[in-house]
Design goal:
about 40% helix, Kif23_Arf-bd_sf, binds magnesium ion, binds adenosine-5'-diphosphate, disordered N terminus, ATP hydrolysis activity, ten-stranded mixed beta sheet, 17 helices, Kinesin, about 850 residues, ATP binding, alpha+beta, microtubule, disordered C terminus, microtubule binding
């Protein structure tokens, strides 16, 4: 079994275009078989796929080769599909589009007898797409239709709009010309042939109708036979003696490049019934022509066009806007194409064969057009589409070149006989659905406020209600009038059969007189009512004029207010501009302020830090001053003591010198005496001059000075109790009082092996045999002087520690600009030294300071 599923040709990239396109919507409808015993070669295998089986006879012909082909469509409708189901899927959106000013084209395609006419037109009770479309259209726009002749075709495929009065005049003119009664406007049975096409339960309606528009429907019906166009609605005067053959029409292009049948009758219809009537009129004419001219009806294409004109209501919602540019026209073409089969099937002969060939030619052209279009769209080629080769394609050129929605119902008769034709139909259908048509764009809206019709209706209702309240007539009621006439006394029988009858006439006269009286009474009443009415009307008019005046006043006030508003608006704009510039300025100022504030903050911080530093420096200076004062007092005290000590030493020296002189004098005296008194007494041995003892010195010093100096005291130590030096280097007690300042000198005294103490204690002293005191004082030149007072540590007899000072080392730091240093370097008293001057004052053994630590 060969099962071939036809894959679609992959689409090639197309030229970039921002126009949205939709493929032609192709639907497939399978009609039921004519008889149960007929062979079926079509099977619906899904809601979008059908399968064709080659019939048995054909299989035998092709050496038993079994062949099945599948075809996909937008949707497949099986034999049980009802007309309404088909309509809802295929045509409903086309009607909605039509109301939204978008064009549509719907055609049925298939072999003769496949159900094209059944699908398009239907049968009584089984209305097809055409009657249902009309029904839906009128159900939707019904109450919003314009009066007849308000919209008027302009013979150039356009529609004009005219005012109510012109339309009324035209209506009256037509009525006077036509002796026939007016077209019925209500649903009533017009022709039993198309009666009950649609079950009222199945009525469709589109709810999205713009109520602020007025609509008018125009229909036209043409037939294309043998590549000639005939107007099926044309009212040609019929000449029974020399019947003229129908005149064919030509195609023209309008200013929007749309094709139209020139001079084709467009009938304005106001209801579904009226439209049906027009359609059936055309159908009848078609049938007559076919019979008279011996035509094959299945070989003609019929095109029923529904044109919808719409224009917005004016701002009051009462009348149609008298602006042709605001009139939108859209159309839906419903096409029942000729049978697609080849000619030999109909066994046509002679001229009919030629005609059939022409018809087939137009379908061939349709196929070629579709093929070229598809190729151009898919391959990006630009081949010319031969629309002009046939009237059908030429007429619908704009749907494929321009925009619109195109739908096709492919009708299939599943009988085996049609198999080969059906195959061709399927191929064409499948190819057609690859053709794309530009999607219609939405029309711009008029810009007036919506709800105008409703507001106007509400106003009219209110007006009639008020009139009714005042007792005025609302409408002339014919029932009331009839009742009134019936209430008059009935006329008696007035047939005079006997010349001597003297009763009938007086009775009649009496009745007539009574009637006359009643009539007069009624006239009086009428006049009174009319007067009342007149009065009411006058009142109403005066009220109306006063209201109008008020309205006028209000309008002028409104105008003034408008002016004020405009002025204020300009003022507001000016102020807004000003406020904007001010805001800008404020912005800049704020930014500047922020900058300044930041500066201020940083300056304040700097100020604070500087103040803190100043405070610190001041405190430091005060501390320094205090320390310096202490140092000055110390030094002063020390020098006083030193002076005292030197004075004492000088005194001692002078005393010693005096003693030596005394001694010398004594020795001289003794010599003198020895020499002079040798004869006298015994000679005294010469006394060795004696140095005054320390004790004596001390006593002398004590005598000369009230304050005893510790320097002159004798240490109560055992001089032999020195610690051994050979034990491994000297060990030092480094006494650095806490008040000492750390000087930033390069050369610092380094004492190895030292125990550093801030106050001397016995423990430290007991471990060492050398002692050094770092003493700071202010020199006479204002510089700080550090003295290293060194001494030996002894053990006292009592078990304590004693220190004997032996040496003073002076360390001095000087500023380079110090005048004393300059002077010194200039005077050449000693070598000029760098920053640190180490001035050793040798005071070996002239110091005898002892510290006792117990
Ligand atoms: P075509 O227009 O394609 O030549 P018709 O519409 O005239 O074919 O159909 C031929 C016959 O088949 C008609 O009698 C019609 O009633 C009938 N028919 C077609 N389609 C269907 C259908 N879907 N259901 C019932 N009867 C149908
Ligand atoms: Mg038909």
């Amino acid at each position: 079994m060969l099962c071939r599923r036809k894959g679609r040709t992959p689409r090639r990239p197309k030229k970039p275009s921002n126009i949205e396109k939709d493929p032609v919507g192709v639907y497939c409808r399978i009609r039921p078989l004519g008889g149960e015993d007929e062979e079926c070669c079509v099977e619906m295998i899904s809601s979008s796929t059908i399968q064709l089986h080659a019939p048995d006879g054909l299989k035998a012909n092709r050496n038993g080769e079994y062949k099945e082909t599948q075809y996909c469509f937008k949707k497949v409708f099986g034999i049980k599909t009802t007309q309404i189901e088909l309509f809802e899927d295929v045509a409903k959106t086309l009607i909605e589009d039509l109301i939204h000013c978008k064009n549509g084209l719907l055609f049925t395609y298939g072999v003769t007898g496949s159900g094209k006419t059944y699908t398009m037109t239907g049968s009584p009770g089984e209305g097809g797409l055409l009657p249902r479309s009309l029904d839906m259209l009128f159900n939707s726009i019904g109450p919003f239709q314009a009066k007849r002749f308000v919209f008027k075709p302009d013979e150039k495929n356009g529609i004009e709009v005219q005012n109510q009065l012109d339309a009324l005049l035209e209506r009256q003119k037509r009525d006077s010309q036509l002796s026939v009664p007016k077209t019925p406007s209500s649903r009533q049975r017009v022709d039993p042939e198309f009666a009950d096409m649609i079950n009222p339960d199945q009525a469709c309606k589109f709810e999205g109708v713009d109520e602020d528009c007025c609509y008018s429907v125009f229909v036209s019906y043409i037939e294309i036979y043998n590549n000639y166009i005939y107007d099926l609605l044309e009212d040609a005067p019929f000449d029974p003696i020399r019947p003229k053959p129908p005149q064919s029409k030509i195609l023209r292009e309008d200013q929007n490049h749309n094709m139209y049948v020139a001079g084709c009758t467009e009938v304005e219809v106001k209801s579904t019934e009226e439209a049906f009537e027009v359609f059936w009129k055309g159908q009848k004419k078609r049938r007559i022509a076919n019979t008279e001219l011996n035509r094959e009806s299945s070989r003609s294409h019929s095109v029923f066009t529904v044109k919808l004109a719409q224009a917005p209501l004016d701002a009051d919602g009462d009348h149609i806007l008298q602006d042709k540019s605001q009139v939108n026209v859209s159309q839906l073409c419903l096409v029942d194409l000729a049978g697609s089969e080849r000619t030999n099937r109909t066994r046509a002969e002679g001229s009919r064969l030629r005609e059939a060939g022409n018809i087939n030619q137009s379908l061939m052209t349709l196929r070629t057009c579709m093929e070229v279009l598809r190729e151009n769209q898919m391959c990006g080629t630009n081949r010319m589409v031969p629309y002009r080769d046939s009237k059908v394609t030429h007429l619908f050129k704009n749907y494929f070149d321009g925009e619109g929605k195109v739908r096709m119902v492919v009708c299939v008769n599943p009988k085996a006989e049609d198999y080969e034709e059906t195959l061709l139909v399927m191929r064409f259908a499948e190819m057609t659905q690859e053709v794309e048509v530009a999607r219609p764009v939405d029309r711009p809206i008029c810009g007036l406020t919506p709800g105008r019709r409703q507001r106007n209706q509400a106003f009219k209702d209110e007006l009639s209600r008020r009139l009714e309240e005042r007792g005025g007539p609302v409408n002339g009621d014919p029932v009331q009038l009839n009742q009134l006439i019936e209430s008059l006394p009935p006329l008696p029988p007035c047939e005079l059969s006997d010349p001597s009858d003297d009763q009938t006439l007086p009775r009649l006269m009496e009745v007539l007189e009574r009637r006359y009286r009643i009539r007069q009474k009624m006239t009086e009443q009428f006049n009174q009512t009319a007067n009342n009415m007149k009065f009411t009307l006058q009142q109403f008019e005066s009220q109306f004029s006063s209201k109008e005046n008020v309205l006028h006043d209000q309008r002028s006030k409104l105008g003034e207010k408008d002016k004020v508003i405009t002025n204020q608006r300009t003022e507001i704009e000016r102020l807004e501009k000003k406020s904007k510039t001010l805001e800008y300025k404020i912005d800049i100022l704020q930014k500047t302020t922020e900058m300044y504030e930041q500066d201020k903050r940083s300056l304040q911080q700097e100020l604070e830090s500087r103040e803190q530093r100043l405070q610190k420096e001041l405190a430091e200076r005060r501390r320094m001053e205090q320390r310096m004062q202490g140092v000055v007092t110390d030094t002063k005290l020390k020098w006083e003591r030193e002076c005292e000590r030197r004075v004492n030493a000088k005194q001692l020296e002078l005393q010693n010198k005096l003693w030596v002189k005394d001694e010398k004098l004594k020795q001289l005296k003794a010599i003198v005496t020895e020499n002079g008194g040798a004869s006298g007494g015994p000679t005294e041995p010469p006394r060795k001059p004696e140095r005054p003892s320390r004790e004596r010195d001390r006593n002398v010093a004590q005598k000369s000075s009230a304050s005893p100096t510790p320097l002159s005291t004798v240490p109560p130590v055992h001089p032999m109790h020195r610690r051994s030096h050979s034990a491994g280097g000297e060990k030092w007690v480094d006494h650095k009082p806490a008040s000492n300042l750390d000087l930033d000198t390069v050369m610092q005294p380094i004492i190895p092996n030292a125990i550093k103490v801030s106050t001397p204690n016995e423990k430290a002293l007991s471990k060492c045999h050398r002692y050094v005191l770092r003493h700071q004082e202010l020199a006479s030149d204002g510089e700080i002087e550090t003295k290293l007072i060194k001494g030996n540590v002894f053990k006292t007899r009592g078990g304590g520690q004693a220190v004997e000072f032996t040496d003073i080392e002076t360390l001095k730091q000087e500023g380079p600009t110090a005048p004393s240093r300059k002077r010194r370097s200039g005077s050449g008293e000693g070598p000029a030294q760098a920053d640190d001057i180490e001035n050793r004052v040798s005071a070996n053994k002239c110091l005898s300071l002892l510290i006792f630590v117990q």
